[in-house]
Design goal:
583 residues, alpha+beta, five-stranded antiparallel beta sheet, 16% helix, globular
Length: 583
């Protein structure tokens, strides 16, 4: 344990647990069991070799490690020297999210990592000690734990504008970073302005447009591949186009996938080697990346009606297609690369969304229930409600409903937490519902979040320990999970309706976008409170706002026709407090 890292580890409120005097008995809950810590543990641990202590502690979760560090001197040194807090914190992220974070680090050399840390601390000894451990297997955990800590200690952020992307005064609907933060794609949904722009950062630090992707119809989506080497667009002009990144820094078209009707979606597989398109011509097409860099057709899926979406499972082995008129179909990839139907879910309602859970064990759908559904609530005399359903797969491969969550108004989104243990539903009329999975596999309601206006977004953090909601009632609400209970942690106000709110990769910052022409960064302090750390301005409403994966840059898109890329740095300015929720 180097002195710099020890300093970070010493103040371990990063897990939002209040400090306690070590002389007192402390009780807590870990993995569903109540535990009591005291000096009694020390006599049991004194004779154990340090290597055994390491192995034991590595199996513990973050709250338990934090509790032991505060109450058991025999383990305190082991926790510090083994960077146990950092590793336990990092283990909260899914393997897919860890892979994304590690990919970001792998693209940066020592000087870039040094500059990254230098944005948030002047402690050269800390930076030097951390970079000396770059070859360690635990470096990603230690680095991100440290960066997250340093950013949380910043009272406010200084903003340095790096670039501006213009769409000629046409309002920008969305702007998205590639996973490595080196490129940005922007697009509009304005008739007659069907252009997606890919912009990249030069060595000098400036951002320039690298490619203009022109369609003759509205562009429904523009998505980077997970490995950041390709981008695919889907358009009403019956085509999807794949562009690839070249060694000279340019983006070039690789293939145009054609359909007989509009292309509703186009999505990459998690390993970036496949693309699936969904079309109103009743087909979904799968294209694969060859060793020579070309994209070739691999398979085709048919429905009786228009296909509205096609989505891969998190492991890329399965694909779910959603048709307008018939059942949901699930296809699996065979050893020879072909795709065969392995299951289906009856479409007993008008399904507007379907996706796998991160662990692949469940399928979630959003739909409007028919009047003759026996599960319907309220009675048939009233308008049929909207519903979210969770399906689980039986031993025979068929899928059966496990839960129906009913709403009185249209459900705009539904999602699983990263560990698949919770689901979050949001409606256009004021309500967000949280459900959690019990030990026996059934689901139970956990909390209801109420707004006074249309709910525009509801999102889990990458660790699944927090969630954020945004609403037209001009507020953003942050909830935290502790001991199995979701409680409000903060409510942040805008002067206008809030279009969206999203978390940073570490889950300790939130970015908002509002009709009041501003975007805000809300950060979690070391004591667990949330405060506004920076505010961004545009000439018109901000339609979307997001962080880069390394949290060093933010991207805001506005109806004023511009997208701004801004670097964030630590600043010694008193923050604007957020209204605290019940603890």
């Amino acid at each position: 344990m180097t002195p710099g890292i020890k300093q970070i580890n010493d103040n371990s409120n990063i897990v939002d647990l209040p400090g306690q005097p070590q002389s007192e008995l402390i009780t807590g809950t870990s993995m569903g069991r109540e535990i009591t810590a005291s000096y009694q543990c020390e006599s049991l641990l004194k004779e154990l070799p340090k290597e055994v202590k390491y192995k034991v502690i590595d199996y513990l979760d973050l709250p338990t490690v934090t509790l032991l560090k505060r109450t058991c001197s025999e383990l305190c040194d082991v926790i510090e020297e083994g960077d146990v807090l950092a590793k336990a914190w990092y283990k909260r992220f899914s393997s897919a999210h860890q892979a994304q974070l590690e990919a970001v680090i792998s693209t940066k050399d020592k000087n870039q990592l040094r500059e990254w840390m230098g944005r948030f601390t002047n402690d050269k000894a800390l930076i030097k000690s951390l970079l000396e451990r770059r070859e360690s297997d635990q470096f990603p955990a230690i680095f991100y734990f440290t960066i997250s800590r340093l950013m949380s200690e910043c009272k406010a952020f200084e903003l340095v504008e790096q670039g501006e992307i213009s769409h000629g005064g046409i309002g920008i609907e969305s702007a998205t970073f590639s996973a490595d933060g080196r490129h940005v794609v922007t697009k509009t949904i304005t008739v007659g302005h069907n252009i997606a722009k890919i912009s990249g950062q030069d060595i000098s630090g400036s951002w320039d447009v690298k490619a203009n992707i022109v369609h003759t119809g509205l562009i429904n989506s523009a998505t980077f591949s997970p490995d950041c080497n390709h981008l695919v667009t889907a358009s009403d002009d019956h085509t999807a186009r794949i562009y690839g990144y070249s060694a000279d820094g340019s983006w070039k078209e690789k293939v145009t996938i054609t359909h007989d009707h509009m292309v509703s979606s186009a999505t990459f597989s998690p390993d970036s080697t496949l693309v699936v398109t969904a079309s109103y011509d009743r087909t979904a097409k799968i294209y694969g990346l060859e060793a020579n860099g070309s994209w070739v057709p691999k398979s085709r899926i048919f429905h009786e009606g228009s296909i509205l979406s096609a989505t891969f499972s998190a492991d890329g082995r399965y694909l779910i297609t959603r048709g307008r008129a018939d059942k949901l179909k699930i296809h699996g990839q065979e050893d020879d690369g072909s795709w065969l139907e392995t299951g289906s879910i009856p479409n007993d309602s008008h399904v507007t969304f379907a996706a796998f859970s991160p662990d692949g064990a469940h399928v979630l759908t959003i739909g409007k229930m028919p009047e003759n559904d026996p599960l319907m609530f309220p009675p048939p005399s009233l308008d049929p409600p909207y519903t979210v359903k969770i399906y689980g797969q039986k031993a025979d491969g068929f899928w059966e409903p496990k839960l129906g969550i009913h709403h009185f108004s249209e459900v705009i989104s539904a999602s699983f937490s990263p560990d698949s243990s919770h689901i979050l539903t949001a409606t256009i009329r004021y309500t967000v519902k949280i459900f959690g999975q019990k030990g026996d596999g059934s689901w139970e309601p956990k909390a209801i979040i109420c707004h006074e206006g249309l709910v525009t977004s509801a999102t889990f953090s990458a660790s699944g320990r927090h969630l954020v909601t945004a609403s037209f009632d001009k507020t953003v609400k942050i909830y935290g999970l502790k001991d199995g209970v979701w409680k409000e942690k903060a409510s942040i106000a805008h002067d206008g309706e809030v279009n969206s709110a999203v978390f940073s990769a570490d889950g300790r910052h939130v970015m908002t976008a509002s009709v009041d022409k501003t975007a805000k960064i809300i950060g979690q302090q070391i004591d667990g409170s949330w405060v506004v750390k920076a505010s961004f301005s545009h000439q018109d409403e901000v339609s979307s706002a997001t962080f880069s994966a390394d949290c060093c840059h933010v991207l805001t898109a506005s109806e004023d026709g511009t997208a701004k890329i801004t670097e964030i740095r630590g600043a010694l300015v008193s923050p604007e407090p957020a209204q605290a929720g019940s603890d």
